[in-house]
Amino acid sequence: MAKSASSPRPSRPARTGRPARSTRTGRRSPLASVALLVVGLLATGGAYAMFTTAASAEEGGNASIATADKENGEKLFQANCATCHGSNGEGTNQAPTLLGVGAASVDFQVGTGRMPMAVQGPQAERKPPQFTDEQTKDLAAYIASLAPGPDIPADEYLTGKGDVTEGAELFRINCAMCHNVAGAGGALTEGKFAPSLKGVSAAHIYEAMITGPQNMPVFNDQNISPEDKANIIAYLTYLDEHASPGGLDLGDLGPVSEGLFVWIFALGSIVAITVWLTAKSN
Amino acid sequence: MADHGSADSGTAVEIIATDPGPRSAAVVPTDRPQNPGFPPERKRVADLDPAKEKQQERRVVAWFVLGIVGAVGAVAAYVAFPLDTHGAVDPSTTRITTLLIGLGIALGLFGIGFGAVHWAKSLMHGHDLVEMRHPTRGTPETREKAVAVFTAGNEESGFSRRKAIVGTLIGALAAFPLPGIVLFRGLAPKEDANDVLRHTMWKKDTRLTRDPSGTPIKASEVTLGSAFHVIPEGLNDSEHKLEEKAKAAVLLMRLKPEDLHPSKGRENWAYDGIVAYSKICTHVGCPVALYEQQTHHLLCPCHQSQFDITREAEVIFGPAKRPLPQLPIYVDDEGYLRARSDFHEPVGPSFWEREH
Question: What pTM value is reported for the model?
Answer without folding.
Answer: 0.72
